[in-house]
Amino acid sequence: MSALVLAFVVAAVVCALAGVRRIVGHRVSLSAAARVEETARRHGRQRRLVMPGARRSRAAKRHRAAADAEIPQLLDLLAAGSSAGLAAPLALRRAADGLTGPLADEVRVTVRAVDLGARWRDELDALTDRLDLPDLRRTVSALTRTETLGASLAQATAELAASVRQARRAATMERARTAPVKMLFPLVFLVLPAFLLLTVVPVLLTTVRSIG
Question: pTM of whole model > 0.90?
Answer without folding.
Answer: no
